[in-house]
Design goal:
This protein is α+β, with helices and mostly antiparallel strands. It has one domain. The protein is built from ten helices and four strands; from the N terminus they run ααβαβββααααααα. Strand 3 and strand 4 form a beta hairpin. The longest helix has 38 residues, at 180-217. It is elongated and about 60 Å long.
Length: 286
């Protein structure tokens, strides 16, 4: 699939995701009748606006990212900018997040409004060639316009998880006219639907970003080595973040065991393909 075709597909997914968000808010609001549906419609519309325009800022703020400048960026900032030039992209903002768990992610509603973030753990752990591979992977997400879809998915999932929790307790505790089975059913659909939306959006695009990132970097070797290190360390060092719904943003799913033979339910809700499968695909490019 060409880059333009991937971008069109991601734009359609974004529209679908925003529509699903609106529908789920209305469905949950329907527990409280017409007034609840209207409230859900208004709140869903507000969240669509927030998700589209501010989801990147929310993601960066949640990770406590600090923007790098020419004075503070060291070798990392010019390396990312040089790769962006290679890829024909506007130079993104680059952030450093104060977390020991090694990881990285990209965000932004378009290539002109994009950002790439690295944790301190990733910068310490990875060699320059490995960091180059990781940065190229994240730039591939920006080039393919994955970042808007991914960041909105994280925002939607976080909101729906909160909505499910709030709806469960408010519906069962304060609304005697509500059917408890209906209440439980709606909030479960909201929570499970959010998880499945994340999984559907994230998995296949990682293979595309890996392949495109290898081309941007000039070789798959750095990315392959980085994925092996990041996968191993992610199993040992937890990523301290307030919103686990953002897991789909990262190059390696935080605290995820992607090995074969794991729990089928865990695989169902996993936001990334198994790392070994990603490595196998990259080896075909060598």
């Amino acid at each position: 699939m060409t880059t333009s075709a991937v971008a069109i597909t991601n734009n359609l997914k974004t529209a679908l995701l925003l529509g699903a968000l609106m529908g789920l808010f209305i469905a949950v609001g329907s527990i409280w009748g017409t007034a609840g549906m209207i409230t859900g419609l208004l709140f869903g519309g507000l969240m669509n606006v927030v998700s589209f325009w501010f989801s990147d800022r929310i993601a960066i703020a949640a990770m406590r990212g600090k923007e790098l400048t020419p004075e503070t960026g060291g070798d990392l900032l010019p390396m990312v900018h040089q790769l962006a030039d290679n890829a024909g992209l506007p130079r993104p903002r680059v952030y450093l997040c104060p977390h020991e768990a090694p990881n990285a992610f990209a965000t932004g509603r378009s290539p002109k409004h994009a950002a790439v973030a690295f944790t301190q753990g990733a910068v310490r752990l990875l060699s320059p060639d490995e960091l180059r591979g990781v940065a190229a992977h994240e730039l591939a997400h920006i080039k393919n316009r994955d970042t808007l879809t991914s960041t909105i998915a994280a925002t939607v999932s976080g909101v729906l998880a909160f909505l499910a929790y709030w709806g469960f307790w408010l519906g069962l505790g304060n609304n005697r006219n509500a059917n408890p089975l209906v209440t439980i059913g709606v909030v479960l659909i909201a929570a499970i639907g959010a998880a499945l939306i994340k999984a559907m959006i994230s998995r296949s695009r990682e293979y595309v970003a890996d392949a495109d990132g290898a081309r941007i970097a000039g070789s798959p070797q750095g990315l392959m080595s980085a994925l092996q290190k990041l996968d191993a360390y992610s199993r040992r060092i937890p990523l301290q973040q307030p919103n686990p719904a953002q897991n789909n943003l990262f190059i390696i799913e935080p605290l995820a065991s992607n090995a074969r033979g794991g729990n089928p339910l865990t695989k169902l809700f996993a936001t990334h393909p198994p790392t070994e499968d990603r490595l196998a695909s990259l080896r075909k490019l060598t």
